[in-house]
């Protein structure tokens, strides 16, 4: 019997483990892959307080080691489901079952990818899924943003202040995002809207050099860009727990700033939660809050 089981060893889950252990609660962290979550793919973090220049892998390793030194236990097993026993919860994995007084779901979300050949190999080498995280590395360079929602529009507007040239590629002839933002983009001289088009090829050696886009008529155009920001949506990792936590239409867990779900004793933290800003600093904040609330629940 463990006090708190944390599902996910990303920034939110690791921070939750630190806060729970500092409250003298026993902690088991279950992680399907490797500690760190999405942040390990980021070559450099420059927007986190104190750590002005650190790689995502180094950041994740430091937080992981801190949690381990405080006594958090780790098992690299995928959580498949949770059973609500009332005063306790059972987390089922492919290898066994684990019981705890409270569970924090910190499974995060994964980027929806373009599905173009070579995409995975170029992550961190020209391809990014976060303009506010990595945009500064493409100052005065040509970049492309792919997507048609508010995130893509805002990413393009953000990059217009940094990059030499911004191509905004969208598969339709109209955007789903706010028209006001679209109009602001149309007024920027260094922004070009590439509509009715899809990215069909990535050209690279060690890093991205250009992309090919194909329009609905089959015409192919090559865009010389150093960076490609993909903003075609995210997929929250909540599907296995949907019976115990309320999800919105996109699959994000509905919980307020206290990270409590509809099921007493189950909390959510990080990018899998409904929220406005999904950044490293907000993920760690969620982890601290979720652990604090879990401790309150156990002590009540």
Q: Could you describe the 3D structure shown?
A:
The chain is an alpha/beta fold and 300 residues long. 23% of the residues lie in helices and 27% in strands. The protein is built from six helices and 17 strands. The protein has helices at residues 11-22, 56-69, 131-134, 150-160, 179-186, 280-299; strands spanning 2-7, 27-30, 73-75, 79-84, 89-93, 97-105, 109-111, 127-128, 142-146, 165-169, 191-194, 197-204, 208-215, 220-223, 227-230, 234-236, 266-268. The longest helix is centred in the last third of the chain and has 20 residues, at 280-299.
Q: Topology, please?
A:
Blueprint (H helix, E strand, L loop, with lengths): L1 E6 L3 H12 L4 E4 L25 H14 L3 E3 L3 E6 L4 E5 L3 E9 L3 E3 L15 E2 L2 H4 L7 E5 L3 H11 L4 E5 L9 H8 L4 E4 L2 E8 L3 E8 L4 E4 L3 E4 L3 E3 L29 E3 L11 H20 L1
Parallel strand pairs: 1-2, 1-6, 2-3, 6-17, 8-15, 9-10, 9-15, 10-11
Antiparallel strand pairs: 4-5, 5-6, 7-16, 12-13, 13-14
Helix pairs in contact: 1-2, 1-6, 4-5
Looking at this protein, list some descriptive labels.
6 helices, alpha/beta, seven-stranded mixed sheet, 300 residues, five-stranded parallel sheet
Average per-residue pLDDT, rounded, comes to 94
How would you describe the shape? elongated
Evaluate the radius of gyration.
Answer: 21 Å
Main beta sheet strand tally, sense and closure:
7 strands, mixed
| Helix-strand pattern | EHEHEEEEEEHEHEHEEEEEEEH
Strand proportion, as a percent range, falls in: 25-35%
Q: Distance N terminus to C terminus?
A: 18 Å
Number of helices: 6
Question: Percentage of helical residues?
Answer: 10-25%
């Amino acid at each position: 019997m463990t006090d708190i089981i944390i599902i996910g060893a990303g920034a939110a889950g690791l921070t939750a483990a630190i806060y729970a252990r500092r409250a003298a609660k026993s902690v088991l962290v279950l992680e399907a892959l490797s500690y760190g979550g999405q942040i390990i793919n980021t070559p450099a973090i420059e927007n986190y307080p104190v750590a002005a220049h650190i790689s995502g892998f180094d950041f994740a390793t430091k937080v992981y080691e801190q949690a381990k030194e405080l006594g958090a236990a780790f098992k690299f097993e995928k959580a498949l489901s949770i059973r609500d026993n009332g005063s306790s919860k059972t987390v089922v994995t492919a290898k066994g079952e684990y019981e705890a007084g409270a569970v924090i779901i910190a499974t995060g979300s994964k980027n929806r990818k373009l599905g173009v050949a070579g995409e995975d190999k170029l992550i961190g080498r020209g391809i990014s899924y976060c303009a506010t995280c990595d945009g500064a590395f493409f100052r005065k360079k040509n970049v492309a943003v792919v997507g048609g929602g508010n995130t893509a529009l805002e990413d393009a507007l953000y990059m217009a202040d940094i990059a030499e040239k911004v191509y905004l590629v969208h598969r339709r002839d109209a955007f789903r995002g706010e028209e006001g933002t679209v109009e602001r983009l149309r007024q920027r001289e260094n922004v070009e809207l590439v509509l009715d088009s899809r990215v069909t090829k990535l050209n690279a050696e060690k890093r991205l050099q250009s992309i090919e886009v194909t329009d609905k008529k089959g015409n192919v155009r090559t865009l010389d860009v150093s960076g490609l920001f993909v903003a075609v949506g995210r997929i929250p990792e909540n599907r296995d727990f949907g019976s115990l936590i309320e999800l919105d239409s996109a699959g994000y867990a509905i919980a307020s700033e206290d990270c409590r779900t509809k099921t007493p004793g189950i909390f959510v933290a990080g990018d899998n939660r409904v929220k406005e800003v999904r950044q490293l600093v907000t993920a760690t904040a969620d982890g601290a809050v979720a652990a604090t609330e879990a401790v309150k629940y156990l002590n009540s």
